[in-house]
Amino acid sequence: MATRFCIVEAGLPLADEQASEVVIGERLEALVALIAACWDEGQEVYRGSGLEFLDVVPGAPLCDLMYQVGRLDRVLQGALQQTLNRCRCWDAGDNEAEAPAEVCIDSVAVNAPSVGWAHAQMQSGRAVACLQVGPSTDGPRRVEADGQSTQLYFLSCAIAPPRLAFYRTIPELEDLSERAYLDHAPLLFPDLFFKPGLDQEFRRFAGGYRAVRAEVTRHLAILNDHFRRVFERHHKDLKKTADELQSGHSVDLSGESANTKGNAAAWKERKISIQGTEIYCELHLKLSPTANRIHFHPGHKAIACGKVIVGIFHEHLPT
């Protein structure tokens, strides 16, 4: 598992208006579900060794809620115990690391050593996000510690979009190589299937891999998140789909002209083989008006679990 997440102290103890038994149970259930989602995606979750002794509400540390009879639903208590016992501690044993306890989150000073650890990881070039119990608007926040400032993602619920937004920062934050980018692609774009060996085609982009990487990520994210839904809503009408993606997400989608389809040599350039089946990647996203194309197939239920298939990277295929 990759080290990607850390449970943090930020947001605790909960404010008085959030301190009802119902709300406490909901927040802790949400944390368990969020950690499970991270594990399901193959990601490691860390915590501080003193997390159990942190007050969830004033005078009620997490350990009391986890172990005292009647404090929480018994099923939730068991889930919390199992979940937190499985999390590794960043400040104990072989993982022990130093981290600033005092940090500023969006210019507000707090004592949160696990946020400090995540901040230190980011400063060293490792993308780490913060999981918190307290209510939060999931997304990036500015964190300052030891005279350094960085942007950290804070997450509090198990829905996928905020985690996807965080995962998609990894290529730039960690300066992923072409091979590493495609290794991470199932995490960043779970609804896309990538042709094996596609990492070798990054070199075909004009300007080079690192110059276009951020735009590749942006376009693939829109392809993953929106294309299939828009395409099917418009009954596979390419022009209507392209118009909506252009107006809503500023991407340029196109198909091939009749001339290209009629040119046997040019049309063959769009053909790939996936799981023993030959398909044509006619549709393409234009990273710029004149250069750099991501060619893809809209998917077929009998191939690659029906996912959209990303098949070709190229500056511009012959027409």
The global form is: elongated
Number of domains: 2
User: In DSSP terms, counting alpha (H) and pi (I) runs of 4 or more, how many helices?
Assistant: 11
- Proportion of helical residues: 25-40%
Mean pLDDT across the residues is 93
Tally the beta strands: 17
Low-confidence stretches: none
Q: How large a portion of the residues is in β-strands, by DSSP E?
A: 15-25%
With strands numbered from the N-terminus, the spatial order across the biggest sheet is: 5-2-1-8-10-9-6-7
**How are helices and strands ordered from N to C?**
EHEEEHHEEEHEEEHHHEHHEHHEEEEE
Biggest sheet descriptor: 8 strands, mixed
Based on secondary structure, the structural category is alpha/beta
Distance from N terminus to C terminus (CA atoms, Å) equals 44 Å
Q: Report Rg.
A: 23 Å
In short:
With 319 residues, this protein is of the alpha/beta class. The strands form 4 sheets. An 8-stranded mixed β-sheet has the order 5-2-1-8-10-9-6-7, with helices on both faces. A 5-stranded mixed β-sheet has the order 11-17-16-15-12. The chain has 11 helices and 17 strands.
Care to describe what's here?
- The protein is of the alpha/beta class and 319 residues long.
- It folds into 2 domains: 2-166, no CATH class; 176-314, no CATH class.
- 38% of the residues lie in helices and 23% in strands.
- It is built from 11 helices and 17 strands.
- The protein has helices spanning 21-40, 62-67, 74-86, 113-123, 160-167, 170-173, 178-188, 209-233, 238-249, 258-262, 264-268, and strands at 2-7, 43-47, 55-57, 60-61, 88-89, 102-105, 108-111, 129-131, 139-145, 148-155, 192-194, 252-254, 271-274, 277-280, 283-286, 293-297, 308-314.
- It has an 8-stranded mixed β-sheet, with helices on both faces. It has a 5-stranded mixed β-sheet with strand order 11-17-16-15-12. The protein has a two-stranded antiparallel ribbon with strand order 3-4.
- It is elongated and about 75 Å long.
